[in-house]
Specification:
By secondary structure, the chain is an alpha/beta fold. The protein has 2 domains: 208 residues, D-Maltodextrin-Binding Protein, domain 2 (3-Layer(aba) Sandwich), CATH 3.40.190.10; 111 residues, 3-Layer(aba) Sandwich (D-Maltodextrin-Binding Protein, domain 2). Helices cover 41% and strands 18% of the residues. It contains 16 helices and 11 strands. Strands 1-8-7-9-6-10 form a 6-stranded mixed beta sheet, with helices on both faces. Helix 2 crosses helix 13. It is globular, with a radius of gyration of 20 Å. Pfam families: NMT1. Belongs to the bacterial solute-binding protein SsuA/TauA family. It is found in: Periplasm. This is SsuA/THI5-like domain-containing protein.
Length: 347
């Protein structure tokens, strides 16, 4: 799908989910936990991407088993936003960017973010090595790099009009770039390279491990790591686990234990003593070679945590309104978006 955008402003229908604390969870959720019954969580995730690793580790190392949690891995459809995918696949939870969650809520979908994962949006602007575009490693400013995309085709691994695509468009607009043709490249580590190789896009927005996959090919290079540049990537929260509000309210204890398992997975990934073991799990799940897996482990997982910091979320939500990604009214606030069931590190 290709759409021409000169000034991208999200046209979002309005309804806002009211905040719900869901402190105790449902009777059935508490009873299952107390009786040691295994509780199934249907988790929607994009295949072969880096953010899956803490979940895969928690499964492999028995952290979910210790909490009586069983995971069913649901592939995210590549022609839908994450929020649409949760509804379509009838998943209990999925990983959503704040932009996608806000867009869905203001369009009428009832969602809650209940467990954090990535504190920043980990994306890079990629191009073919023979393109002669400026890069920050070559001494260009981030604004100069992004201005080179004026009038060009930029590929994203998300539907055009989705929260992530609108977030990316807002980042380019910070550099004064408004004339871009947006292309949905589809999911998968190879889709970025295929789109760049074929010339169907001039630039691609890649996230780990696709970033490392492209660089290892020798045919593509990262022009800029976006969290080092525009405020929409640098200053704002990345993505968290989200679920239908009804599921969070009815299964608060299950959701909390799922989040605790994810944090145990993060702690294990971030411990250098486990590097070799974690690398093998990453390679098995993503099918990437060892050298790329090593690069991913060295560069990707530092900003991972299940914490849901209110200050960063509030800055993100305010920034999205200023950038036109979200409507000012009715507002989506931290309190209406988040039911915090996160687990502190080490617990």
């Amino acid at each position: 799908m290709v759409v021409k955008k000169r000034h991208i402003v999200a046209a979002l229908a309005a309804t806002v989910a009211l905040a719900t604390t869901a402190c105790g969870g449902s009777d059935s959720s508490r009873a299952a936990a107390a009786d040691g019954q295994s509780r199934l969580v249907k988790v929607m995730m994009t295949p072969a991407v880096a953010y899956r690793l803490p979940v895969m580790v928690a499964e492999e190392k028995g952290f979910f088993d210790e909490l009586n949690i069983q995971i069913e891995d649901i592939p995210q459809p590549n022609n839908m936003t994450g929020a649409q995918g949760i509804a379509s696949t009838k998943s209990d939870a999925g990983q959503l960017s704040v932009a996608t969650a806000v867009q869905a809520i203001q369009a009428g979908q009832d969602l809650k973010m209940f467990c954090g994962l990535v504190m920043e949006v980990q994306s890079s602007l990629m191009a073919n090595v023979d393109s002669d575009y400026p890069s920050t490693t070559g001494g260009a400013s981030w604004q100069e790099v992004m201005k080179s995309a004026q009038g060009k085709r930029v590929g994203v691994q998300a539907p055009v009009g989705s929260g992530f695509q609108l977030l990316t468009a807002a980042a380019f607009e910070e550099a004064g770039v408004t004339d871009i043709t947006w292309v949905n490249m589809g999911a998968g580590n190879a889709s970025n390279g295929a789109a760049l190789d074929s010339g169907s896009v001039d630039f691609a927005i890649a996230s780990p491990p696709a970033t490392q996959f492209l660089e290892d090919s020798g045919k593509q290079e990262a022009l800029e790591y976006l969290p080092d540049g525009p405020s929409t990537f640098k200053d704002y929260y990345g993505s968290a686990w989200a679920a239908p509000t009804s599921w969070v309210e009815s299964n608060a204890d299950t959701a909390k234990d799922f989040c605790a398992g994810v944090q145990k997975g993060i702690d294990y990934v971030q411990d250098p003593a486990n590097a070799d073991d974690v690398k093998q799990i990453l390679m098995q799940d993503t099918k990437i070679p060892e050298n790329i897996a090593q690069s991913v482990l060295e560069t990707v997982y530092k900003p991972y945590s299940t914490a849901l910091p209110a200050d960063r979320f509030r800055a993100t939500l305010e920034g999205y309104v200023d950038a036109g990604i979200a409507k000012a009214s009715p507002p989506v606030t931290y309190e209406s978006l988040v039911t915090d069931l996160s687990a502190p590190s080490g617990q």
